[in-house]
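Listing S7. Sequence submitted for prediction.
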Amino acid sequence: MTNLQLPVSVLNLAPIREGQDSKDAIESMVELAQATEKMGYSRYWIAEHHNTPTLVSSATSILIKHTLEHTTQIRVGSGGIMLPNHSPLVVAEQFGTMATIHPNRLDLGLGRAPGTDMVTASALRRSQNDSVYTFPEDVDALLTYFGPSNQQGNVKAYPGVGTNIPIYILGSSTDSAYLAAKLGLPYVFASHFAPRYMEEAISIYRTRFQPSEYLNSPYMMICLNVIAAESDEEAFFEQTTMQQFFLNVVRGSQMMLKPPVESMEHIWSPNEKHMATSMSSVTLLGGKDSIREQLNSFQEKYNVNELMAVSYIFDPEKQKRSYEILKEVVDGR
């Protein structure tokens, strides 16, 4: 049997549940961080999305700071900061400040997508040029800003210099696999919503990896969906919340995170079902034995270094239990 004792972490898009307001959603985000910290999770990452009324994760660095203030040891970070929207210097100053207040607890995951539609991306107004194409240079700039003072130019991030905040490259296609390998940085693939290129991206990253001052060998993280419950039947029921979440994405609709339903068949069309299911195909689903079996199969095939789980479950207590079951499986309990 494959060794399942690997670090597990949490990704939270900070969705608003039906019946909640934004403040409730932020409180739920903090409560989940506190619960998963007690369970022994390694990191808690918060995403960046804009102009999305169903999520509260637009000002990611503020949510990270808020989470750091309400936890004591779990690493908190971005999954990710979308660099096309931000000046690297401002990111370095913000994260450098947080790292000064909370040393050795911060991660910076970086993505090249804007995390929104193009009209909103334009309204974010980082530049009139397409800053998606400057992503490799922007990552380099951040590595420099967090490094030693004597390797920097006249413009420095204060505080930020010498904080050496770990940087992770995020990706949902093969492009960032090449970049993470070339820079010798850890790589996180977004299988939780874009699984199509996962296998190819893992292969590219591992075969092309160049050791660096940050990392001697490839460090591959996979973000996937986890719906774990006391039984397979209960998990299948709870899964309908996630299915409605992805249907929301497919339709471009703006529904809050919805309670589970007995059946999805009257809610989605066959085409919508196909699209939503293909987006969420990398999901661990079921009771503890099923989760263990699926995770064993996944690790036998991919042998990743770390799992990052996102769990769209409507009931906050059942969501916490889902993370608890995953941790018990990984710990061999």
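Caption to Listing S7: primary sequence and predicted structure tokens for the chain studied. The CA atoms of residues 50 and 58 lie 5 Å apart. The mean pLDDT is 94.
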